[in-house]
């Protein structure tokens, strides 16, 4: 069920803007570098990683997945260990992207930061894309497109990777901001429905497990 909501969002993007590979709607193309603020993460020393739940979470490519960020697997950092980490603080709507092994069998390792993901810090070999004048949701789905994979051509080395140059040299559709915002509003409605569906699934699973336990105990 949840996958259907993701497919709906992709279909909405294609319906409103067309295929980024074919550009059948004839949008003017603009260089991403002129519209984004790109940052790659800090080289935190692994020997200083913390498991203290009160310390700040680290966001790196290993926990960024096509379906979201696996925060339960994140390392933590004692912020008192370092100075001048302010620029690595993530913000709501930031796009984060794994730069090593970015494409796996289930898709592209890219996510967008939400309020509940904060506070968190950006780790090395991970890109943070912050929009200057594009709608962040529009930008996110434009990078999620297969067109970006075709553009980046991940290196076929021991560890396939993409570079900051790949991200900055990507060509974006110059879509009027009003249309970008309209898309973002519709995506938010779909995401709200998706979240509700996930809650219902969790409740159903909880009920099923409860009934199963009662059945084993002979209480039914």
Characterise the protein shown here.
The chain is α+β, with helices and mostly antiparallel strands and 220 residues long. It contains five helices and 13 strands. The chain has helices spanning 2-17, 136-144, 146-152, 164-168, 177-216; strands at 29-31, 36-40, 56-59, 64-65, 68-69, 76-77, 95-98, 103-104, 107-108, 110-112, 120-122, 126-131, 171-173. The strands form five sheets. A four-stranded antiparallel β-sheet has the order 2-12-7-10. A three-stranded mixed β-sheet has the order 6-3-11, with no helix packed on it. The chain has a two-stranded antiparallel sheet with strand order 1-13. A hairpin with a 2-residue loop joins β8 (103-104) and β9 (107-108). α1 packs antiparallel against α5 (177-216). It starts with a helix and ends with a helix. The relative contact order is 0.19. The mean pLDDT is 89.
How much is the radius of gyration in Å?
20 Å
**Would you tell me the overall average pLDDT?**
89
The largest sheet, given as strand count, sense and whether it forms a barrel, is: 4 strands, antiparallel
User: Beta-strand level of the residues, as a percent range?
Assistant: 15-25%
What is the terminal separation in angstroms? 30 Å
Oligomer: single chain
Task: Tally the beta strands.
Answer: 13
H/E element order = HEEEEEEEEEEEEHHHEH
């Amino acid at each position: 069920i949840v996958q259907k909501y993701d497919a709906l969002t992709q279909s909405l993007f294609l319906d409103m803007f067309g295929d980024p590979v074919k550009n059948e709607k004839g949008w003017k193309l603009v260089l991403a570098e002129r519209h984004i603020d790109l940052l790659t993460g800090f080289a935190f020393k692994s020997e200083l990683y913390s498991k203290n739940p009160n310390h700040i979470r680290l966001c790196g490519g290993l926990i960024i997945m096509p379906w979201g960020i696996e925060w339960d697997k994140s390392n933590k950092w004692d912020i008192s260990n370092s100075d001048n980490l302010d620029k690595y603080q993530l913000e709501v709507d930031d796009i984060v992207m794994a730069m090593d092994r970015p494409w796996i069998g289930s898709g592209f390792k890219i996510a967008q930061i939400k309020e509940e993901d904060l506070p968190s810090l950006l780790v090395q070999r991970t890109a943070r894309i912050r929009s200057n004048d594009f709608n962040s949701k529009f930008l996110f789905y434009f990078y999620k497109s297969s067109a970006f994979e075709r553009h980046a051509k991940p290196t076929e080395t021991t560890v396939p990777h993409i570079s900051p140059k790949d991200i900055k040299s990507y060509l974006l559709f110059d879509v009027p901001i009003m249309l970008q915002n309209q898309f973002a509003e519709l995506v938010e409605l779909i995401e709200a429905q998706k979240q509700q569906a996930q809650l219902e699934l969790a409740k159903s699973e909880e009920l099923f497990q409860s009934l199963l336990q009662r059945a084993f105990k002979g209480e039914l």
